[in-house]
Structure formats: structure tokens, C-alpha cells
Design goal:
alpha+beta; two-stranded antiparallel ribbon; Tetrahydropterin Synthase, Chain A; about 160 residues; 2 domains; 6 helices
């Protein structure tokens, strides 16, 4: 057994004797600490930079939209003896533009009357016809507003009765 103990002890470069596994164990622990430390640092930096982007996104608050209701319309359709009662609401992209839309209400009403009264019952009775009418009204309403960006984001039919 004494010979076995002697095999485990190895003379180091500086002349001292120590166990064979001590140096390799210390090297492995040191390497693991360096790798873990570098990984932790990089992970912290990446998470910190993503958190900063989220803070910037939180600072850019989307502008609140606003809904403007128009009085109901009762219109003659192009088909003789056919009528349409429709109530339209506009969604404005920015609440600060609400007054500008209210000023243009007579022009908007005129455009709606002119466009809708030129339609037939068959052209607006299907869902596709209603979507097409919405698109045309939205396009013309934004033309009336005359700004470089679309003021009216969407329009809604809150009442749509045909006879």
C-alpha cells in the first residue's frame, strides 16, 4: 500500500510534492469560472439592451383614435323606389384632428349622399358590395380632408337598412 501512495504523489516543477489531480482540478475550476463569468456578463448585456429597447417602445405611446358620428342618412338608391337608411361613424387617426373633421362635415355628407345614391340595391346588398362602398367612402373622405396623411382611419356602418 505504501507503493500505491507513492504513485499518487508526483513531484511538481518547483520541487514540491502534491497530489496528481490538484493542478488539473484547479485549472478546470479556473476555466469554468472564466467561462461562466463571461457568459453571465454577455447575458446581462443582451438582456439590458433589450430592456432599453422596451423602454423606448413604452415611451412612444400610440395616438388615441376618436370616433365621430354623423347623423343618419335616408337616401334614394339608383333603383326606382328603393331606399337606404345608413348611419356612418368615422374613426379619426388622431383625436386632435376631430375638430378638422367636424368642420368638413357638410362636404363629407355631400360626398356620401352623392356616392351612395348612385349605387343600386344589388351592388350594396352583398357583403362584398358593402366593403367596396366602405373603401370608396373612406377614399373620398380622406381626399376631402386634403392632408398628406390619412385623417380618417376607418368608417363603420352602425345602421344599414334597405327597402
Amino acid at each position: 500500500m505504501a507503493e500505491e501512495k507513492d504513485d499518487l504523489e508526483v513531484e511538481s516543477l518547483d520541487g514540491t510534492t502534491g497530489k496528481k489531480g490538484n493542478k488539473t482540478l484547479i485549472i478546470i475550476i479556473a476555466a469554468a469560472c472564466i467561462v461562466l463569468g463571461a457568459g453571465g456578463f454577455l447575458g446581462f448585456k443582451l438582456l439590458a439592451s433589450k430592456g432599453g429597447e422596451e423602454e423606448v417602445k413604452k415611451e412612444v405611446v400610440p395616438v388615441k383614435t376618436s370616433i365621430i358620428s354623423l347623423d343618419p342618412f335616408v337616401l334614394n338608391l339608383s333603383d326606382r323606389g328603393r331606399y337606404l337608411k345608413v348611419t356612418i361613424q368615422f374613426e379619426v387617426t388622431d383625436a386632435t384632428l376631430q375638430d378638422a373633421v367636424k368642420v368638413k362635415t357638410p362636404q363629407l355628407r355631400d360626398t356620401i349622399i352623392t356616392l351612395v345614391s348612385s349605387k343600386s340595391l344589388n351592388s350594396i346588398s352583398s357583403p362584398e358590395g358593402k366593403f367596396q362602398l366602405k373603401d370608396e367612402l373612406l377614399f373620398r373622405a380622406n381626399q376631402i380632408m386634403g392632408m398628406e396623411k390619412d385623417v380618417i382611419k376607418n368608417l363603420y356602418f352602425s345602421e344599414f337598412v334597405m327597402q
